[in-house]
Amino acid sequence: MQGEQFTPVAQALRDGDLDAAGLDDAHRKLMDFVATVTKHAYKVTDEQVQALRDVGWTDEQIAEAAYDAALFNLFVRLADTFGIEPPPAYEPDGVPAAVTRDPD
Predict the structure, then answer these.
(1) How far is CA 19 from CA 10, 53, 61, 71, in A?
(2) 49 near 62, Cβ under 8 Å?
(3) CA torsion angle 22 27 31 32 (round to 10)
């Protein structure tokens, strides 16, 4: 709902602060995997995928996370290329910190 306050976890994720989000090990590993796909997909290792399996993620879930991350990154890059910005009403407080942070 527009103007609704975010829970502390959602706000931490919007801020790009995974430590403050208090994620369990399985979800933290998944977020780290998605970050690797986003920043340097060629650096995803068999060990990283196995670590996801070891905490309970199935191969189908891991693949879906990779597909979702890749597709989202495609949309963001296209929007950046063409200068497409969301209407201010969608982000009344400005673009979330997780989006504006330098990934490396």
Answers:
(1) 12, 22, 23, 25
(2) yes
(3) 90
Structure tokens at 76: 């963001």
List pLDDT tens digits, range 48-96: 999 999 999 999 999 999 999 999 999 989 998 999 887 777 777 777 7
d(CA 83, CA 80): 5
B/e letters for 23-51, b = 16+ CB within 10 Å, e = fewer, are: beeeeebbeebbebbeeeeeeeeeeebeb
**The length of the chain, given as a count of residues:** 104
pLDDT in tens, 17-34: 999 999 999 999 999 999
pTM of the model: 0.78
